[in-house]
Write a structure and sequence with these properties.
This protein has 12 helices and 16 strands. It is of the alpha/beta class. It folds into 2 domains: 160 residues, Quinone Oxidoreductase, Chain A, domain 1 (Alpha-Beta Complex), CATH 3.90.180.10; 148 residues, Rossmann fold, CATH 3.40.50. Strands 3, 5, 6, 7, 8, 15 and 16 form a 7-stranded mixed sheet that branches. Helix 4 packs across helix 5 and helix 7 runs parallel beside helix 8.
Length: 352
């Protein structure tokens, strides 16, 4: 079978190689999955650079977060799912623990407890993206922040994939959103998507606009994936006893200076106003959640996507051979399209 393998840590385009590897053999409680489609996330690329929350043992197959495929075989004494069934693999590596095999290959082995059946009417593009961004949006809104109908939710990077999904989910749940974007051109687009209020940091003061929007009661709940000065402004904009969940650090991408990898918080906000700032990492959630809880959350996401409450933008397909172009698109500014590795049926079925 073919697999995209990183020979060492470094820039993905420099260290990735398309190799031929044996098809793996599933053990008891495992299934062999014939991968059909798998996305390229920015976090996948940071793993290869050695800048993420875990590091694989190199050489390592790239990817590792999620994919869709069909069950090709089952391990000994394993009865379900059935061979030929279409499933989503929630391959997010457990933390702590060794990373799982990456998804950028034609076949992979996965524990059956991490497999979610998906209906055929759900496209490969949507199905292969269920386990990361939509799940992150759902957990942030309903579990981490427990935002209630009628409450304000303040979020940064509203134009990102997770940000757009948060807007859609909030609208469905009756939650009002204040959405922060960097570019004036994005404002009308976010409003059209259902964002109640939009703040453009290009020409507006974030703290002032939040105060004007939310009034004397202020905003008690916020989600940030930018960090840096913007994350600090979000913290400052919260009402006393407010809570900020940080789930990303877009402002630090490509930066190596430790001084840039911070959120410069005001001591007053933390001490006298008792604001709470904490992190969320999907990998750690998967590590601590039972398989039953994880699959229940994924099933809820599957239902929201199938019912068109959540809309996952269609990805742009690439064969494994075109990985250099696909990786470049994954980090292109304002690309708006998620690159997907799409593996055609009928190749390397003999394991060569």
């Amino acid at each position: 079978m073919r697999a995209l393998v990183a020979v060492k840590a470094g820039e993905p385009t420099d260290v990735l190689r398309l190799e031929s590897r044996p098809v793996p053999t599933p053990k008891t409680g495992q299934a062999l999955i014939r991968v059909k489609a798998t996305p390229i996330h920015a976090s996948d690329l940071h793993v290869l650079r050695g800048r993420y929350g875990f590091s694989p043992t190199f050489p390592a197959v790239g990817g590792g977060l999620e994919c869709v495929g069909r069950v090709a075989a089952l391990g000994p004494d394993t009865e379900a799912p059935t061979v030929g069934e279409r499933v989503v693999v929630a391959a997010v590596p457990a933390v702590p623990g060794p990373p799982v095999a990456g998804t950028w290959q034609e076949y992979l082995v996965a524990d059956t407890l991490r497999l979610l059946p998906v209906p055929d009417h759900l496209s490969d593009s949507s199905a292969c993206q269920l386990a990361v961004n939509p799940l992150t949006a759902l957990l942030l809104v309903t579990r981490e922040l427990d935002v209630q109908p009628g409450e304000w939710l303040l979020q940064t990077a509203a134009g990102s994939t997770v940000g757009r999904l948060v807007i859609q989910l909030s609208r469905h749940l009756g939650i009002r959103t204040i959405n922060v974007v960097r570019r004036r051109a994005a404002v009308e687009e976010i409003k059209a998507l259902g964002g109640d209020e939009v703040i453009c940091t290009e020409d507006e003061d974030l703290v002032q606009r939040v105060a004007e929007t939310a009034g004397p009661d202020g905003v008690l709940k916020a989600a940030d994936c930018v960090a840096g000065p913007v994350g600090a402004q979000v913290s400052q904009a919260l009402a006393p006893s407010g809570e900020l969940v940080v789930y990303g650090a877009l402002s630090t991408h490509r930066k190596t200076d430790p001084a840039a990898l911070t959120i410069p918080l005001q001591a007053r906000s933390v001490i006298y106003e008792t604001k709470r700032i904490r992190g969320f990492w999907l990998n750690r959630w998967f590590a601590t959640a039972s398989p039953e809880i994880a699959l229940h959350a994924l099933a809820r996401v599957r239902g929201l996507v199938a019912d068109e409450v959540l809309s996952i933008p269609r990805g742009r397909p690439f064969p494994l051979e075109h990985f250099i172009e696909a990786v470049a698109l994954a980090e292109a500014p304002a690309h708006g399209t998620k690159p997907l590795f799409v593996i055609e049926d009928g190749r390397d079925e003999d394991g060569k």
